[in-house]
Write a structure and sequence with these properties.
By secondary structure, the protein is mainly α. It contains 18 helices and no strands. Helix 4 (about 45-55) packs parallel to helix 7 (about 100-135) and helix 9 (about 150-170) packs across helix 11 (about 200-225). The protein is globular. It starts with 11 loop residues before the first helix and ends in an 8-residue tail after the last helix.
Amino acid sequence: MDNLSPFESLEPEVQSLIMCYISSATTLYSLIRASPRYFQVFRSRRDYQLTALAVRHSLVPTNVWATVRASKLPTPQSREDVKVFTDTLDDQGFNIPQLPPDLSMPMIRLNAHLEWFVADFAKESLAILARLGEMMNLHLDGDLVFSELSVVEELRIARALCRFDTFHSLFPPRSGNGDGWYREELRPCADFIESYDYDEVEEIACITDYLRRRLWRIFDLVEDDFVNGDIPGMGHGTPQASRGNDEDWFGTDGKLSDEMYLESLVSRGLPFLRKLFTADPLRRAEMVFNNSQEYSGGIQDTFGLLGRDPSFLGWPERNGYYYSSSYQDSVEEPSMGWHCASEGCAPGSHTNKGLRDWGYVFWDKRRLTAVIDIGS
């Protein structure tokens, strides 16, 4: 005991409490590798420590818990299954004292993905907002536009990312094409979307648009790599560079087909997409070619059907929200952007595509007023 540092000489109960406040799995892993004493404490209380890490340091623990629960359910989900699941979305089940590792570890991994995507979404969307201001000859307060995200903004974005991933856990990719045949197939998908408030549906649509925008850039990068010969052994005419019926990836026909293949990649969820967005050129091309397939009936088709036939989802016409000077930012309430721009538009519709490109439904009053004259 005399050779132990004061940090390692603490009582096991105190050491356990210290580990509960560690903010990342990497830091916790480093500690238990460096200190046999802390490793012993962790091993004796593993489930408790992992549960604390999964829940305490999550931006949106309820939503993360729902996403992990969805990933454990059998598929496909019927309308009755979806109703049972959505009826418990607000349950506080994650507050149980301990979770088994097969639940806590996926939550920890999802928390790490959320941190990455929240930062990436802000970087992408705020850059579009700044360019929009420049095109309109607005005098932007750049420091404010690109300032650190508020807690409310982070929570809104993380919540929408979780719901996007929950959708794709409940309704995994399936191959097929066509327009009318999947109308009934989309009913469980529509029931899930319908369970959220209108502004929250628009948040999910905003995340979907952002990921599709990122994937179009990935497709362009892969094409550039082929054209420039930066990927040896994977050129035109090779199996890796062809689709069914020997259709080229590039050229007019390929571009027209990209939409469906892109949708199949969107449907694979956040962990896959993060790997794809951060992959080196060769790995990026392999992931695109090996995971693209004809796909329909997903989240984009659900939003598309809503735009064509809102009554299909059972959503009555609604009154628009109106901004008032007393508005206060709160994650429980629609954002100011939604209040000001939502009237007459169904959530997820193509009408608000331009607004969603710069994330209008997420930003707080402070950031929006740096760009927009709310009174006009």
